[in-house]
Specification:
Elements lengths: L1 H11 L6 H4 L56 H26 L13 H9 L6 E3 L5 H6 L4 H9 L22 E2 L8 H14 L6 E6 L6 H13 L3 E7 L2 E2 L2 E2 H4 L9 H4 L2 E6 L3 H18 L3 E6 L18 H10 L2 H11 L5 H24 L18 H17 L11
Parallel strand pairs: 1-2, 1-3, 3-4, 4-8, 7-8
Antiparallel strand pairs: 5-6
Length: 425
């Protein structure tokens, strides 16, 4: 009976230990004086079993048919704002399809789609202030798209052409935009997490009313940088929102092989982070959670952790074949039964804000916009080779000047062996 009572108590307050483990009432002199934890003595030998604790619930606003479950949780967004959410998600989906196909045709070298995760991008982006600083991983193109980043620059970056703000020096999908407060994406996994915490600490010291939002996947949460970042954010009390997209797979590794705990949100309390788990396929749930986390992060200088549960419908990247480690039936279920775009469309149709004619017209016009940007990017030349040496130092050191001169002499002598006609003069 005592064990049953303890089990019920644990389920009632997940994350805490039952009263029996806390021992009897003690005088102040008898309480533990250890500086590293707040607890009481116990005279019972018992290990805390994670399987006994109830799983963290998944917050949602809409069901899979696009119906709001509780009126009080409806964010009450105006029609035009909800339509912007939907158009951004579908435009991202269209851009993904065209760029994915272009890589398969050998037109670009690499690509990563966002299929199935559009709700996490757009729902969170809509809840931020335009001045909030964003650190992305590599699957947050929807955040930039929502902030008005032009299709032409998405294409230019993937092609690495002369219009690319990164001057062709990054592999595709590594976007960045200082004007839209989106830090350029890095390839190494999880490096953005401690960097984001440092930026948030600087913002706190400057007393600026801004937040930092740091995106990453559940696979990146296994990196040491994630644990260091969480701890620094909590101890330094930084205004940051950690946004984890738990899409079920770290490339080919399913979550069952990544960790044994209750996802990523369960780690938050251990580091002192206020945490929540949300339905990442419910754009309103993502919006509500991000808006409140962002508000409190700025007002209270506290870090927050959001775990958005979603599913990666596409391959990890164009270098991956997901059919080798998951079934077609599994992918089809999430694509047909629980997709963030279809869920929001059902919501719009229930409100009579969208219909089949509008859907057909928008799909046609959005595809035209993407193709026009795509064709323009394909016509642009590559950046001049001399840019290989710029933007590293404010004043170019002698060794880099010598290397640049050596390259120029080499190309003058052997230029016919290189496709220089495709590069800007």
């Amino acid at each position: 009976m005592a064990a049953l009572r303890a089990l019920r108590w644990r389920r009632r307050l997940p994350g805490l230990v039952p009263r029996r483990l806390r021992g009897t009432a003690e005088s102040p002199e008898e309480r533990p004086q250890f500086p590293g934890a707040s607890a009481a003595f116990s005279d019972h030998l018992e290990f805390i079993q994670p399987q006994v604790l109830a799983g963290i619930p998944v917050y949602r606003v809409m069901d899979r048919q696009g119906q709001v479950l509780r009126a009080s949780e409806d964010p009450q967004l105006p029609k035009e704002e909800v339509l912007k959410l939907y158009r951004t998600m579908t435009l991202l989906n269209t851009m993904d399809r065209i760029l994915y196909e272009s890589q398969r045709q050998g037109r670009i070298s690499f690509y990563m789609t966002n299929y199935g995760e559009e709700g996490t991008h757009v729902g969170s982006a809509a809840a931020l202030d335009p001045n909030d600083l964003v650190f992305g991983q590599y699957r947050e193109a929807g955040v930039l798209l929502y902030r008005g980043y032009p299709l032409e620059l998405f294409m230019a970056q993937c092609y690495g052409n002369a219009r690319d703000p990164g001057k062709g020096r990054q592999m595709p999908v590594h976007y960045g935009c200082a004007e839209r407060h989106f830090v350029t994406i890095s390839s190494p996994l999880a490096t953005q997490i401690p960097q984001a915490v440092g930026a948030a600490y600087a913002i706190k010291r400057a007393d600026a009313s801004r937040a930092v939002v740091c995106y990453f996947g559940e696979g990146a949460a296994s990196e040491g940088d994630a644990h260091a970042g969480f701890n620094f954010a909590a101890t330094l009390e930084c205004p940051i929102v950690f946004f984890c997209r738990n899409n079920g797979y770290a490339i080919s590794t399913p979550t069952a092989e990544q960790y044994r705990g209750d996802g990523i949100a369960a780690r938050g309390p251990g580091y002192g982070l206020l945490s929540i788990r949300v339905d990442g396929n419910d754009v309103f749930a993502v919006f509500n959670a991000t808006r409140e986390a962002r508000r409190r992060a700025v007002a209270e200088n506290q870090p927050f952790l959001i775990e958005a549960m979603t599913y990666r419908i596409g391959h990890h990247s164009t270098s991956d074949d997901s059919s080798a480690y998951r079934s077609v039936d599994e992918v089809n279920y999430w694509d047909k039964q629980d997709h963030p775009i279809s869920r929001l469309r059902l919501f719009l149709e229930r409100r009579a804000w969208w219909d089949e004619r509008q859907e057909r017209d928008w799909r046609k016009s959005s595809r035209k916009m993407v193709l026009e940007a795509f064709e323009q990017a394909e016509r642009e030349p590559k950046p001049p080779p001399r840019l290989l040496f710029s933007d590293v130092y404010r004043e170019m050191p002698p060794r880099l000047r010598r290397q640049r001169e050596e390259l120029e002499r080499h190309l003058e002598t052997y230029g016919e062996h290189y496709p220089l006609q495709h590069f800007q003069k």
